[in-house]
């Protein structure tokens, strides 16, 4: 990034020298684009069908993008209407209880007055099981600016056998259920903070906790990987396909920060190998690339994949195999204080 | 198999030619009487036999005609016609000098004579007279070869002010620039605002954009063949100019009169010198010592020696370089520790080319040209930082990014003229390429860090052989049929192709002709370009085992009409297919450090472009100029771009208009004006935004436990290149005032670029207006710019 900034400075410098007397900025009109329905949803065989419906907003419109809460959302199987989904708030529409079966094709149509109707279809792919999981705690030291830092990470080797002859797409991620007991006074409020991209973000809890309350904290920590088959690291996990491992047994290595899978008492860690549909894979991959490059004027813009006809968004499917481990901290120690706390 | 086909083809041509070998041959060179400069495409005509020919690009002609009286008529635009009569009783070799017309009597300044345009078998070719380049309005007082070419139909310009050309829907890499036969890989100075070709050192420019003769190859869309002057054989002369941003000087003359001549031409900008006090003052205000600047220079030199009438040797050198530098020093004290940081960063790019050429005559019908050529293009950006802490050196770091291409090679061309109705050419070329497509190094001064990425160059061998015959069939039909066979060895991979070429002309009336052409072209190198401004960051890369060579088929047909030997009109239609195009993958960019170029591209792109080009041109009289109009479409398709759907190519432009008017008010004053219009560029621009999955509409945040993107709306694009920038148009004026002095001629040139102050788009970006509303903003540079320059010739 530093080099890029340097180059930009150089370029801007010479252009400024050349054109400082004749540079001007003009505001130009951008025609109103068609308003489109946005449908996003990933259907799974172990959860009720649910999609989120909203609308596009003109790029120059200052208003927030908004959900379409009055939309008519219909779920079809083999061309037959199964049910109309109910709005649950925040643009989410959910079926009464319907769980899709692996391998069956479903389609969802969304209608809303004033917008072109949209539809999309998807199939929940076959589950590919986790064959084995091998974990390790890694402690690495590194130096920067004459300081030595210690980095602790939790490493996972997740083995799978890729079914041969079919294209498979995977999303590997973690879900952590932490529990611990607070020893703080009830008069203080709990604020969680997260440092990201040079800024602190604070999450103020709604509750004032009592002394010795037991907390449960669910998290989906960020995981990384430098494995050769990994194609994208998204906020929802690491993404890869079987392009290089078709029909083979393979052990993929991933890691996360040690503290994110530990707790003062215990943490239940679900290692989830999600078999995802091609549409879900393409959506996640292009969306990630889109985020990474949309502020870079030198990058080729990334058009996020859509399989929603007449609108945009995606409808994908996934099925998961979960391997659960429980981590404990044997002794109360500083490790516990990964998150910062402030008290009022 | 291919070798046998080529051999059969060549033998057939020779057998065919031998049927015409029973006459005497009159041959030689046509040259300028005043300078000895060879005249290219001069007409040699025998009125007695009705036979004629023209000189080749080395000024050589050969005319085989029946014995007996010859009524010779030799003409060349801008020169008095030479007439002579003699009795031809044996083969005769003779050099003929033509006398240049005085400025006053000059009625034609162009090599584009209407009658020649109609009669010439070649279509889709443009001859650009140097005088014309200096006559039309100049940008910042600098006459520019490429900017003149941009005014021709079928040729489009890039971003505001830049010198890139896009020919018949093709990309910038699909144009072969040859300077004395040597490929030039980056023809831009100053990020493309000027071309590297110094008009003072150039004698002739020919641009071919379709109907390629077999002796050209290696690019899909055009060949711009630029020939340097050879130097005055008779007298010492000079020319120069002083402009707003650059000055240049050209000197030429005999070393041994009529035997050896030289020409040296140099040009340099002085932006860095002019801006130095201002930059120093600004830096000082900010507590920084140092200097920032930019300059470019170029140098052309050529020596020409005539050993005999049959043997001549030329050595030409071109060297040009652009350099942008930022040198900074900063001192500060923190907690009783003194720091002194020194940094040097910048970038430079440039070409070095050399050609050693030997022209030889075998008898009087066979002319040969043998050249050894060298071309070296490099681009380098660097950033070195060193800090002294309490007077002692701390660890410093040096970063360097380098890309380039080096060619060594040889060319051999034969020009055989067995009869007036046949001009046969054959020959070949070999190039040894060394590609360095983006080598990065990062090193520390204490040797604890030494990293290199993409350090291995790629070596490749490229060659071609060709044969063509330009022949007459009866009085109305003329055709040029040829074969071009090329090959490319790279990374244990061998690519080759046989490329048929055809152009034909049917003379419907003496002033009206129909022409048609077909050509297949193959290109073994690609240019990875990520910006529409002419950044030198574009990287030349070879075809490899993964990345296939580009190829195209082009079909063209057209009409040419001569009106009273004063105006000519051409109307041409073309259809061109392109295969194996490459482009950056979505999300990729030049600035992805440490990533191999082959990992950031999309391959196997298919493209098609088609269009109509109209040109009405007048090169005679006081009022001269042309009107050019192009209607075209260019589309491309990649499997992994734009969801696999066809989209407008970056170089697609629906309408393109150029109007050029030059008027000689008196022998001392000429004025000119140009107006250009072009449909806006195709761009990929977001038109809407929308929510990703699991979005929380309450606070605008991504409703997910582990979010890393707090502003996580997705931008919606209707498609790649689906947005059109506002149209580009501009009016320029120029006035030249000439004055004869005792020592020579001086000219004051005044120009007005963008006379009605049109704000043309240079760059579009999203921002906010004064009320905090989102806005699409357009950066425009180069509004109305007056210019003045002074030039002289002695």
Report a brief summary of the structure.
The complex is a heterodimer of chains A (344) and B (794). Chain A has helices at residues 2-19, 278-293, and strands at residues 24-28, 37-44, 50-55, 57-58, 72-77, 80-84, 86-89, 92-94, 105-111, 118-123, 130-144, 147-161, 169-181, 189-196, 199-208, 214-219, 230-234, 237-241, 249-257, 266-276, 312-328, 341-342.
Helix fraction bin of chain B: under 10%
What characterizes the major β-sheet of chain B? 22 strands, antiparallel, barrel
State the helicity of chain A in percent bands.
Answer: under 10%
Determine Rg of chain A (CA atoms, Å).
Answer: 24 Å
Shape of chain A: globular
The overall strand count of chain A is 22
Sheet bearing the most strands of chain A, described? Answer: 10 strands, mixed
Can you count the helices of chain A?
A: 2
> How many structurally independent domains of chain B?
2
CATH architecture name of the largest domain in chain B: Beta Barrel
* The level-1 CATH class of the largest domain in chain B: Mainly Beta
CATH superfamily of the largest domain in chain B: TonB-dependent receptor, beta-barrel domain
Instruction: Give the N-terminus to C-terminus distance of chain B in angstroms.
Output: 58 Å
Walkthrough of the structure:
The complex is a heterodimer of chains A (344) and B (794). With 344 residues, chain A is mostly beta strands. Chain A folds into 2 domains: 87 residues, Immunoglobulin-like (Sandwich), CATH 2.60.40; 198 residues, no CATH class. Chain A contains 2 helices and 22 strands. Chain B has 2 domains: 105 residues, Carboxypeptidase-like, regulatory domain (Immunoglobulin-like), CATH 2.60.40; 641 residues, TonB-dependent receptor, beta-barrel domain (Maltoporin, Chain A), CATH 2.40.170.20. Chain B has 5 helices and 52 strands. In chain B, β24 and β25 form a beta hairpin. About 4% of the residues of chain B have low confidence. Chains A and B meet through α1, β1, β2, β3 and β4 of A and β23, β43, β44, β46 and β50 of B. β4 of chain A pairs antiparallel with β43 of chain B.
């Amino acid at each position: 990034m530093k080099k890029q900034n340097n180059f930009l400075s150089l370029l801007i410098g010479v252009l400024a020298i050349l054109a400082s007397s004749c540079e001007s900025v003009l505001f130009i009109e951008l025609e109103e684009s068609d308003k489109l329905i946005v449908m996003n949803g990933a259907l799974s065989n172990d959860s009720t069908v649910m999609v989120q419906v909203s609308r596009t907003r003109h790029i120059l419109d200052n208003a927030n993008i908004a959900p379409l809460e009055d939309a008519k959302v219909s779920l079809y199987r083999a061309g037959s209407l199964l049910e109309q989904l109910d709005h649950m708030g925040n643009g989410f529409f959910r079926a009464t209880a319907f769980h899709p079966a692996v391998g069956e094709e479903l389609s969802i149509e969304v209608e809303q007055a004033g917008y072109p109707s949209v539809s999309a279809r998807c199939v929940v792919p076959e589950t590919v099981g986790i064959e084995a999981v091998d974990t390790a705690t890694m402690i690495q030291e590194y130096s920067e600016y004459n300081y030595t830092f210690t980095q602790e990470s939790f490493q996972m080797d997740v083995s799978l056998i890729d079914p041969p002859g079919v294209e498979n797409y995977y999303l590997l991620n973690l879900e952590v259920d932490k529990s611990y007991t607070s020893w703080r006074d009830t008069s203080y409020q709990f604020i969680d903070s997260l440092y990201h991209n040079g800024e602190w973000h604070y999450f103020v809890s709604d509750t004032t906790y009592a002394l010795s309350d037991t907390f449960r904290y669910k998290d989906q920590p960020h995981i990384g990987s430098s494995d050769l088959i990994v194609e994208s690291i998204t906020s929802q996990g690491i993404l890869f396909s079987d392009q290089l491992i078709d029909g083979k047994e393979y052990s993929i290595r991933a890691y996360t920060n040690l503290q994110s899978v530990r707790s003062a008492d215990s943490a239940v860690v679900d290692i989830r190998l999600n078999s995802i549909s091609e549409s879900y894979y393409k959506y996640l991959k292009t969306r990630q690339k889109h985020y990474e490059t949309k502020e870079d004027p030198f990058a080729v813009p990334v058009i996020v994949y859509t399989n929603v006809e007449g609108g945009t968004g995606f409808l994908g499917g996934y099925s998961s195999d979960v391997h659960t481990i429980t981590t404990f901290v044997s002794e109360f120690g500083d490790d516990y204080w990964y998150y910062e706390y402030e008290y009022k | 198999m291919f070798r046998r086909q080529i051999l059969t083809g060549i033998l057939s041509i020779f057998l065919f030619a031998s049927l015409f070998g029973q006459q005497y041959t009159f041959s030689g060179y046509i040259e300028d009487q005043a300078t000895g400069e060879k005249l290219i495409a001069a007409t040699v005509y025998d009125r007695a036999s009705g036979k004629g020919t023209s000189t080749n690009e080395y000024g050589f002609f050969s005319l085989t005609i029946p014995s007996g009286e010859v009524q010779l008529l030799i003409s060349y635009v801008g020169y008095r016609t030479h007439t002579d009569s003699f009795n031809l009783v044996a083969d005769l070799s003779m050099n003929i000098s033509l006398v240049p017309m005085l400025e006053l009597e000059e009625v034609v300044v162009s090599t584009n004579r209407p009658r020649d345009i109609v009669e010439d078998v070649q279509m889709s070719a443009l001859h650009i007279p140097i005088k014309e380049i200096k006559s039309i309005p100049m940008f910042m007082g600098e006459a520019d070869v490429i900017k003149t070419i941009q005014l021709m139909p079928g040729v489009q310009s890039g971003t505001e002010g830049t010198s890139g050309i896009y020919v018949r829907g093709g990309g910038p890499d699909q144009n072969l620039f040859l300077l004395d036969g040597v490929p030039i890989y980056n023809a831009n100075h100053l990020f493309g605002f000027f071309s590297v070709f110094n008009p003072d050192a150039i004698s002739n420019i020919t641009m071919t954009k379709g109907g390629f003769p077999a002796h050209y190859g290696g690019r899909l869309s055009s060949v711009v063949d630029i020939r340097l002057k050879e130097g005055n054989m008779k007298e010492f002369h000079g020319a120069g100019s002083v402009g707003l941003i650059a000055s240049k000087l050209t000197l030429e003359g005999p070393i041994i009169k009529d035997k050896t001549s030289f020409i040296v031409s140099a040009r340099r900008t002085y932006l860095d010198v002019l801006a130095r006090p201002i930059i120093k003052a600004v830096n000082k205000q900010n507590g920084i010592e140092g200097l920032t600047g930019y300059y470019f220079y170029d140098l052309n030199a050529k020596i020409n020696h005539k050993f005999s009438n049959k043997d001549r040797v030329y050595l030409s050198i071109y060297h040009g370089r652009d350099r942008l530098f930022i040198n900074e020093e900063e001192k500060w004290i923190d907690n009783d520790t003194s720091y002194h940081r020194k940094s040097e960063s910048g970038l430079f790019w440039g070409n070095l080319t050399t050609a050693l050429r030997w022209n030889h005559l075998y008898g009087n019908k066979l002319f040969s040209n043998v050249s050894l050529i060298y071309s070296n293009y490099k681009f380098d950006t660097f950033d070195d930082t060193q800090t002294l802490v309490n007077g002692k050196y701390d660890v410093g770091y040096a970063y360097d990014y380098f890309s380039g291409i080096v060619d060594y090679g040889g060319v051999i061309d034969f020009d055989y003229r067995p009869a007036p109705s046949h001009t046969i050419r054959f020959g070949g070329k070999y190039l040894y390429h060394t590609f360095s497509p983006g080598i990065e190094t990062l090193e520390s001064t204490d040797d604890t860090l030494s990293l290199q990425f993409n350090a291995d160059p790629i070596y490749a061998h490229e060659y071609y052989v060709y044969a063509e015959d330009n022949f007459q069939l009866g009085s109305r039909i003329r055709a040029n049929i040829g074969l071009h066979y090329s090959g490319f060895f790279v990374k244990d991979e061998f690519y080759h192709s046989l490329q048929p070429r055809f152009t034909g002309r049917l003379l419907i009336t003496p002033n009206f002709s129909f022409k048609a052409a077909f050509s297949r072209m193959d290109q073994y190198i690609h240019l990875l370009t990520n910006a529409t401004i002419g950044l030198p960051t574009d990287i030349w890369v070879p075809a490899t085992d993964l990345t296939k060579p580009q190829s195209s088929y082009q079909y063209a047909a057209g009409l040419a009409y001569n009106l009273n030997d004063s105006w000519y009109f051409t109307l041409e239609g073309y259809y061109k297919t392109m295969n194996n195009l490459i482009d950056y993958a979505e999300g990729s960019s030049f600035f992805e450090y440490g990533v191999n170029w082959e990992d950031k591209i999309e391959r196997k792109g298919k493209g098609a472009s088609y269009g109509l080009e109209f040109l009405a041109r007048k090169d005679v009289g006081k009022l001269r100029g042309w009107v050019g109009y192009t209607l075209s479409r260019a589309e491309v398709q990649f499997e992994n771009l734009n969801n696999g759907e066809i989209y407008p190519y970056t170089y697609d432009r629906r309408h393109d208009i150029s109007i050029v008017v030059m008027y000689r008010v008196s022998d001392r004053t000429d004025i000119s004006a140009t107006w250009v219009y072009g449909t806006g560029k195709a761009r990929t621009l977001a038109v809407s935004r929308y929510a990703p999955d699991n979005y929380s509409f309450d606070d605008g945040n991504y409703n997910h436990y582990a979010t890393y993107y707090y502003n996580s709306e997705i931008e919606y694009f209707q498609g790649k290149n689906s947005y059109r920038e506002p149209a580009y148009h501009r009016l320029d004026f120029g006035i030249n005032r000439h004055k004869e002095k005792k020592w020579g001629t001086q000219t004051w040139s005044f120009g007005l670029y963008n006379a009605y102050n049109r704000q043309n788009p240079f760059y579009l970006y999203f921002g906010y207006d004064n009320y905090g509303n989102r806005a699409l903003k357009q950066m425009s540079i180069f509004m109305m710019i007056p210019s003045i320059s002074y030039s002289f010739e002695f």
